[in-house]
Q: What sequence folds into this?
């Protein structure tokens, strides 16, 4: 194995190799690292009427779903990463609430940096900020949920009704991107549930490949209904915040939740040197 070296800020480390975040391999190690097609993504974004999406987002209790959002080249790039990730899926089970598989941002950074490139694509983050009406910030480097994959691949895989509560001092926005959907699972959302002046409306949708869903985690009560036999659903989740500040107790609670319900203690509490 290569000799130990101090990780340099701004680089991802793979054994003795290092990659500039969002960039290229820069030593003699032969690695086939794919670059996320950000130009295709930007071209796709330019066809949207962002002010109209913003109005729809507000009218729907800070929730919006857009079919065929992701350009084909971008979706193909993400799908191409999935076969190699199968061995690192972490299975979790909380009786009566949740069952499924997950891969944290830490594992994705090591195995498939293309997800980080997508997450950080400047025009994409700008677009999301225009839809939600906030300047969106990246989550801190120690947040396992910054970007992650969710797998519903066994009968009964699901998650019960919950909010994506923000443990940060500001808002937390959840982005879902459909990657694979050969399932009967439905994302079910209860709009206006906390509005005493409106009747609750339930939205039920299949998270089709390429679909984008954006919502305010504190506002949207939602669940994913159970998968059947021989079904498969893979979703990418991205999380952006309006403040990266979190008090230590809430950070501990958030990490415990991520360790138990999603990624395992080893992933969440492993000592990292950034
Ligand atoms: Fe959620």
A:
């Amino acid at each position: 194995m290569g000799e130990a070296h101090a990780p340099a800020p701004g680089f991802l480390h793979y054994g003795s190799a290092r990659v500039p975040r969002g960039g290229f391999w820069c030593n003699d190690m032969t690695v086939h690292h794919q670059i996320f097609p950000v130009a295709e993504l930007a071209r796709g974004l330019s066809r949207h009427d962002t002010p109209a999406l913003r109005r729809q987002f507000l009218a729907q209790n800070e929730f919006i779903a857009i079919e065929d959002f992701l350009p084909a080249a971008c979706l193909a790039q993400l799908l191409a990463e999935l076969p190699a990730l199968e061995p690192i899926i972490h299975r979790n089970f909380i009786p009566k609430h949740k069952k499924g598989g997950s891969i944290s941002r830490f594992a994705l950074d090591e195995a498939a940096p293309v997800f980080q490139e997508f997450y950080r694509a400047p025009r994409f983050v700008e677009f999301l900020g225009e839809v939600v009406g906030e300047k969106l910030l990246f989550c801190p480097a120690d947040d396992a949920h910054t970007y992650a994959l969710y797998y519903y691949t066994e009968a009964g895989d699901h998650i019960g009704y919950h909010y994506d509560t923000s443990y940060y001092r500001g808002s937390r926005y959840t982005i879902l991107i459909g990657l694979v959907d050969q399932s009967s699972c439905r994302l079910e959302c209860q709009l206006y549930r906390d509005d005493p002046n409106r009747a609750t409306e339930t939205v039920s949708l299949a998270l089709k490949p390429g679909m984008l869903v954006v919502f305010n985690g504190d506002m949207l009560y939602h669940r994913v209904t159970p998968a059947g036999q021989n079904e498969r659903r893979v979703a990418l989740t991205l999380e952006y915040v309006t403040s990266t500040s979190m008090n230590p107790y809430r950070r501990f609670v958030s990490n415990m939740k991520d360790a138990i319900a999603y990624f395992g203690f080893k992933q969440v509490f492993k000592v990292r040197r950034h």
Summary: Residues 1-33 form one domain. Residues 162, 164, 222 surround fe (ii) ion (CB under 6 Å).
